[in-house]
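Example: Putative permease IIC component.
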Amino acid sequence: MHAAMNYILSLGGTIFVPIVLIIIGLLFRLSILKSIKAAATVGIGFLGLNLVVSLISQYLSPAVQAMVDRFGLNLTVIDVGSGTSAGIAFSTTVGALIIPIIFGLNVLLLLLRLTKTMNIDIFNYSHYALTGSIVTLMSGHLIYGLIAGMFHAIFSLIIADFTAKRVQKVVGIDGISISQGYATSTVPLYALLDKVFDGIPFLKNRNMDTQFIQRKFGMFGDPVIIGVILGLILSLLAGTGFKQGANVVIVVAGIMILFPRVIRIIVEGLLPISDAAKKFFNKRFHGKELFIGLDSAVTLGHPTTITVGILIIPITLLLSALLPGNHVLPLADLAFAPFFICMATIMHKGDVIRTLISSTINMVLVLYISTYFSPYYTNLAKNGGFDVAKNGTKVSALYVGNVFDFVIVQLMRPGILGIVALIIISGLGIYFSIRRRQSQSEKHDSNITIDQ
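Written out as structure tokens, the predicted fold is:
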């Protein structure tokens, strides 16, 4: 079983996701050649996305390290990053079992019409595996760990359904949702803060997105110029020489342009499958919808996400130094900050100021939660034989600064009573999600009637 899971995971998003999309395309009566072309186009888009992400790793990670060294941050827990975290999560017994269990659970919930999202983002099942592994380590019971991972997946599906229409509007394609285990965990906070912002005069009834900035400040709002300015800020804070600083400037400006371009390729590939799904459900299920659950990476093309994601790097370093009780030194994950704040852009409709404020508050939670989980994380790394935890080094990752992880782990402490509480929370979430969908459907039908 473990070998089979490792093989599936080794395929990566560039291969596994297209394979699943070919199957979905055929199920929705898309021709085999069109299904292959659509799926291959999505794979090419993910390949391009990986290339852009590799630029972040190659050029921004050293700048982050230089900032840490320059500011002399003395924190005792090392952030080893999301890649290592996924490896640790899948190296456990829970990790070996989680993929078929979560996939089967998702299919069951679809058949029962309790969700509209089919989560094909298999690699990011690692978030559910990590939740379950921590609970197993804490409780000593494998079954509790598997149940915890399942509840994390259910929470993610509820949020994926809740945010689907907003995601589709921002990305520009119907029939998708974001079901990634970290991104979905940030939505409750961002939704709450959006309501708070509505009551603040300065933020109320305004949408200060990048287009607004460009209209207001002309060329200073252009994505390339924003990228150059952000790159200069990072270079100055890192104290780099001319060559390294110039590389950082060009890479940040390049990210502002390249992320939207590669996302367009992914969207281009998804469109035929989305259209086929709509026709299929309109014909056979009276317009019922199915959302394809994807990685949050597909939202990264928005200029607000990239802009705030770069700004949040030095802000998070400052927070790590100032927050009492924080022990995590942000390193490996910090350069990938846009992934941590992308749903803020979705919930705040691209408003830069709201997204920046919300993202800062979110990173406070990330630092505290990743500090809290560091003893468990270090033990899991040791048990998995990972070198990052050798010689008494304490490790964690911003990746585990996940609100769903924290809530589920706390509720699982009492055992059966915690499971009952999680069932009630999940049931209420699904109930209100269904009610919301019904309300939206009735509103849509009413608008059609008025138009006629």
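The chain has a mean pLDDT of 86.
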